[in-house]
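Support reply, case 0932

Customer input (verbatim):
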Amino acid sequence: MLPVLEGEEVRRRWAGRLLAQEEIATKVRAIIADVRAGGQVAVERYTRELDGVDLKKAGFRVTAGEIKAAYEAVTPELREAIQKARDNIAAYHRRELRGSWMEADAGGTILGQICRPLKRVGLYVPGGTAAYPSSVLMTAVPARVAGVEEIALATPPRRDGTLPPLLLVAAAEAGVREIYKMGGAQAVAALAYGTEEVAPVDKIAGPGNIYVTLAKKEVYGAVDIDMLAGPSEIVVIADAGARPDWVAADLLSQAEHDALAGAVLITPEAGLARAVVEEVARQLETLPRREIAARSLANYGACVVVPHLEAALDLANALAPEHLELYVADPWSWLGRVENAGAIFLGPYSSEPLGDYWAGPSHVLPTGGTARFYSPLSVTTFMKKISLIAAGPAYLKAAGSLIQALARAEGLEGHARAIELRLEEGDRK
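Our regenerated output:
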């Protein structure tokens, strides 16, 4: 059942989802240490113990034969869906590309910035009991658009040692051929530090469970990471014109992800809130993942009735949700009030699953309130910038005395002398 709560209670519940994880963090650190010390043997041992798969028999790296078999197992309709989704994602993210730039002043001094793609990245895709080919596309396609040369994809195998055919087709359509059957913290460690069979990467991106998230946090510094993604979230702001069944369906679309997922309706209409509560209960009865969704709604879901839409936006900004739906009349007029969200969906037909599968922006988004400072995964996730400075003697002469003053004010005489020597050389010429 979807509870009716006050806004402060929702904030407290959502904050509590990610607290008290030290016990898991301790386990994650132990796994990472084992993989750093034991390499491939440790990865295989954890895969056998945690996933029930013997990689010696199942094979560790996906072969060309497995990819060929995957194409034969996937229907033409699903192959077409994967290809069209890939094209939508690529078209959106190509708009993010920014080139290097340089500017010269009248004296010939050049300042600029060089943009380079990362050479090698690791992508994590959740798996095991479920398949997420959409997450393959939403991470691999922006990386390809950015120009990344090497992409290593890790995803946990199923109990029979295989990977879902549609996931393999998605990887192939995104141009990924280096695919490993490994998951959890051991996969993150293998990508970060390397093993006898996996070369280390420069950055790890992609969503995962709490073990994966904490492992990414642990290896940060040895490699870069995209973000610390937690359980999925949706906030729907709705007014009197909203259809209760559509609102309920959108809430359930996120609640079915994970028992820790958060799904919240905020509305000034008490009648709508009651109708949505009833509709959620009705739709839940026939939802295949109803047990997961029911736990999510009971613990982290809510209907919040507020005095007006301004208060609804205030609460949404405080929650900083992964997904925010503005299911209100003239949603564009309210867009300027949104300060914190991973992705915004405007109007009744912009249902959140459009973002998960089709529209174009990556569905790897900040969660757990981190939309206050994190951005969605994008082309820039897979790029680095290098500053460029090319000064001439006139530039140095004009600024030299001020640079020396700043350096000596900080007690860094060596900095000052590096400038001073060059000024003296110029004076002698």
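We compared this against your earlier run and they match. Two observations from our side: The radius of gyration is 25 Å. The chain has three domains: 7-18+231-359, 22-225, 391-428. Please reopen the case if you see a mismatch on your end.
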